[in-house]
Every structure is written in structure tokens, then in C-alpha cells.
């Protein structure tokens, strides 16, 4: 395992500093400095997007170097639902869910995104971690609350990290999306800005922040960069359609 990305990899793999000393390792990735060709250029980590399996394998091997050798990354078959897996042991087959939790130090939890919001959770001692695929549908179906329920620690002892996603000036949605969140709470109306055509710009970071705060989680950090507008740095499904996937990964370091 490398303590930090080397010069060739620093733009591909971005270390996440969490307030748990060295108890937890976490990274998020960009699209840069990988092995995949156009339109997956170049650090694509998703097998499901029709990229070369060989290239994705090389990219995943590169990512794995930043975690202990015995620590496998548990990937998910993400379906934009609200199910959460309590991962007890590694499965080479992706588990069907949109969030995962573990207190096992031999597991890393991975989330793939290309506009949706990656969310990582960790308790103060670094003994419990979770990774959440925060698309608007999972968020509207309370996937954050479903994940927090698995923590033995209390919400005030949990820190949340919010990663790059489609930003509040680029994520246009219809009235029905706004209404789904307003059914949860009128507070979510502040996360939507109406446009002249009657549609709305939605702020995923703000939606997640409000949900976390409602659960009692107020330690929130993140990287609020827009995947849609940062074309050189990030994949964006809404911008490009056929494209790759970034990853956000967290593991307990013992």
C-alpha cells in the first residue's frame, strides 16, 4: 500500500482526510491518468459501461494499491434504490444495493458515480464505516437514514463526507422531483431553484446535508465540485451519456 498518490497518480486518486487520525483510509477518484480509451478515458472503474474489461481491471488494480493488500473492495450493483447491505465478508460478485456498511477491517466499501453524490460515513473511533450512492431517487427514499440505522454509534459521533456530483447550477429536474422531497419535509424546498421553463435546479449536496442534519449528523465535510462542468476531471453521465465511472472508497485501517 502507498501512503499517498505518487506523481503519476495524484490526479487520479484523491485522498480524503477524515477526522479519525489514521484509523480509516478513504479516497475518491477523477477520470485522469488511467488506462481506458475514449469515451471512457481514462480512469474508468466501472465494468458495466461497455469499456474494455482489461482496462477496467488495470484501473481497479491501480486503485487497490492504496489500501492494505488483504483489504478487498466490495463493489455494489447499484440500482438507484434504498437498500443497504451490512457487509460481513467479501463477495467477488457485486452485491445489489445502493449503500453498504461494515465494521470489518478486512473490507473496503466502494461506490461508483458519474453525477450522483457519493457519501461516506465514519464514526469517531473509525470502527464503523459506510458508503452511499446518493442519486436523487435513493435520497428521496431515505437511503441515508437506512444506512445510519446500522451504526451502533450515535449520529452525533458520525462524520459524513460528500463527494463530487452534478452541481446546483447544472442539475435540472422536473417538478415531480421537488415534490417528492417536499413530501419528506418542506425544508427541502430551499434545495430547488425554479427556472423560466418551469423546471428546477437541484442541489444534491444541500439535500444530503439537510437529511444528515435531520438525523443528528452535523459533522459534514466534502468536495463540492461539479462533475458536469469539470469535463477534464470528472465523468458525467448527464453530459456525455456513454462514459466511465469514478469511485469513492473507504476502509477501516488496522
UniProtKB/TrEMBL annotation:
Stored CDD domains: YfiH (cd16833)
Signal peptide extent: none
Reactions catalysed, as given in the entry: S-methyl-5'-thioadenosine + phosphate = 5-(methylsulfanyl)-alpha-D-ribose 1-phosphate + adenine; inosine + phosphate = alpha-D-ribose 1-phosphate + hypoxanthine; adenosine + phosphate = alpha-D-ribose 1-phosphate + adenine; adenosine + H2O + H(+) = inosine + NH4(+)
KW Phosphoprotein (keyword) present: no
Keywords assigned by UniProt, alphabetized: Hydrolase, Metal-binding, Transferase, Zinc
Source organism, top-level taxon: Bacteria
The family this protein is said to belong to: Belongs to the purine nucleoside phosphorylase YfiH/LACC1 family.
PANTHER family: PURINE NUCLEOSIDE PHOSPHORYLASE LACC1, UNCHARACTERIZED PROTEIN YFIH
Protein name as it appears in the record: Purine nucleoside phosphorylase
Organism of this sequence: Thalassotalea nanhaiensis
Gene behind this protein: pgeF
Amino acid at each position: 500500500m502507498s501512503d499517498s498518490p505518487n506523481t503519476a497518480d495524484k490526479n487520479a486518486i484523491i485522498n480524503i482526510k477524515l477526522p479519525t487520525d489514521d484509523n480509516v483510509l478513504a479516497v475518491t477518484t477523477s477520470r485522469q491518468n488511467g488506462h481506458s480509451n475514449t469515451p471512457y478515458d481514462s480512469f474508468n472503474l466501472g465494468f458495466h459501461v461497455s469499456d474494455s474489461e482489461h482496462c477496467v481491471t488495470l484501473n481497479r488494480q491501480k486503485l487497490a494499491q492504496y489500501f492494505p493488500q488483504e483489504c478487498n473492495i466490495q463493489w455494489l450493483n447499484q440500482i438507484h434504490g434504498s437498500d443497504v447491505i451490512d457487509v460481513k465478508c467479501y463477495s467477488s460478485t457485486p452485491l445489489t444495493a445502493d449503500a453498504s456498511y461494515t465494521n470489518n477491517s478486512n473490507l473496503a466499501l466502494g461506490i461508483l458515480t458519474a453525477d450522483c453524490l457519493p457519501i461516506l460515513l465514519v464514526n469517531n473511533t473509525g470502527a464503523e464505516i459506510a458508503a452511499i450512492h446518493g442519486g436523487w431517487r435513493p435520497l428521496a427514499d431515505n437511503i441515508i437514514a437506512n444506512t445510519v440505522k446500522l451504526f451502533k454509534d450515535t449520529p452525533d459521533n458520525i462524520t459524513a463526507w460528500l463527494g463530487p456530483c452534478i452541481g446546483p447550477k447544472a442539475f435540472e429536474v422536473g417538478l415531480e422531483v421537488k415534490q417528492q422531497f417536499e413530501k419528506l419535509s418542506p425544508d427541502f424546498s430551499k434545495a430547488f431553484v425554479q427556472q423560466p421553463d418551469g423546471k428546477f435546479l437541484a442541489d444534491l449536496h444541500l439535500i444530503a446535508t439537510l437529511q444528515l442534519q435531520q438525523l443528528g449528523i452535523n459533522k459534514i465535510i466534502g468536495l463540492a465540485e461539479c462533475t458536469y462542468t469539470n469535463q477534464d476531471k470528472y465523468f458525467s453521465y448527464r453530459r456525455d451519456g456513454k462514459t466511465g465511472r469514478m469511485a469513492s472508497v473507504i476502509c477501516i485501517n488496522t
